[in-house]
Backbone:
């Protein structure tokens, strides 16, 4: 009974962490809009640079130094986290460039495609099993995404690149035998190697935050950039925590929160039109999310009752 309750609590905590992560990422366009003047590579580099002290401070406060060193001595952990660091950096760069060039819908489409890729990876490589109800939810979501993609064929490459890169990131993080905090710290440390030269190059060239441009004169802009460290580290910590406690398929369906918030922000905050295709897609996807979530929690309750002593 105790073990069953512990597993159920772990899944619930993982679900809350996943919801918080994707809600956090959903409102990130507001932050990026405020930093629209900053070149995408520099913005990514500064986010990495500012994240490192935060990760190390949390490591020190939680006295996780020995655990961090143990992970660093594990060659498999370091290699996998180097892969995940490359994947998340690639995803972020594609996202920034797509937003700057006016292809916001393509980014939303990419993050709508990603959960289906997660389900595919989870069932094929991790042997996760879906019930008939959950497969029905996958089909409903796929129909909704297909309707949206139909009008955006020319941007499918960007959408697929975003979806595949982050789905693979989630897969790698799930199979890394390290805690969320240690994993994010090592990832950030690896990413710091290319990030520092990028920051220094922009400073030397005079075209970025530290180069004497109009951006450098804006303390507000510089402060926003510093806060980016928190906005990078916190959701990644939550993501790592959730990934170790939920199936990749469940993580994938929670991911629908991010682009849905993006759609709502675009329509209600930034005045972007919510046409018929987007509305139908939105309704179908959230019908699928509700169906998948209901079945997942129903099965969790059934398993809990089945394991309880008579």
Residues:
């Amino acid at each position: 009974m105790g073990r069953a309750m512990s597993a159920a609590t772990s899944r619930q905590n993982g679900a809350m962490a996943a919801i918080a992560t994707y809600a956090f990422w959903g409102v990130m366009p507001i932050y990026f809009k405020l930093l629209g003047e900053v070149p995408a590579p520099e913005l990514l580099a500064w986010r990495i640079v500012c994240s490192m002290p935060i990760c190390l401070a949390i490591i020190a406060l939680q006295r996780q130094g020995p655990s961090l060193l143990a992970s660093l001595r594990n060659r498999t952990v370091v290699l996998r986290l180097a892969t995940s660091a490359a994947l998340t950096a690639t995803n972020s760069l594609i996202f920034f460039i797509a937003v700057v060039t006016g292809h916001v819908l393509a980014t939303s489409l990419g993050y709508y495609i990603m959960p289906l890729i997660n389900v595919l990876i989870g069932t094929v490589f991790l042997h996760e099993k879906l019930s008939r109800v959950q497969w029905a939810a996958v089909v409903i979501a796929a129909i909704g995404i297909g309707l949206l993609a139909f009008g955006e064929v020319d941007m499918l490459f960007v959408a697929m690149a975003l979806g595949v890169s982050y789905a693979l990131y989630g897969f790698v993080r799930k199979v890394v035998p390290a805690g969320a905090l240690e994993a994010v710290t090592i990832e950030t440390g690896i990413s710091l190697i290319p990030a520092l030269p990028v920051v220094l190059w922009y400073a030397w060239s005079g075209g970025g935050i530290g180069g004497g441009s109009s951006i450098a004169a804006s303390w507000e802009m510089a402060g926003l950039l510093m806060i980016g460290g928190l906005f990078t580290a916190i959701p990644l910590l939550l993501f790592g925590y959730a990934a170790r406690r939920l199936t990749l398929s469940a993580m994938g369906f929670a991911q629908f929160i991010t682009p849905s918030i993006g759609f709502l922000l675009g329509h209600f905050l930034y005045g972007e039109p919510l046409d018929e295709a987007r509305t139908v897609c939105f309704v179908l996807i959230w019908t699928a999310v509700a169906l998948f979530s209901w079945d997942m929690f129903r099965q969790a309750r059934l398993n809990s009752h089945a394991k309880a002593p008579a």
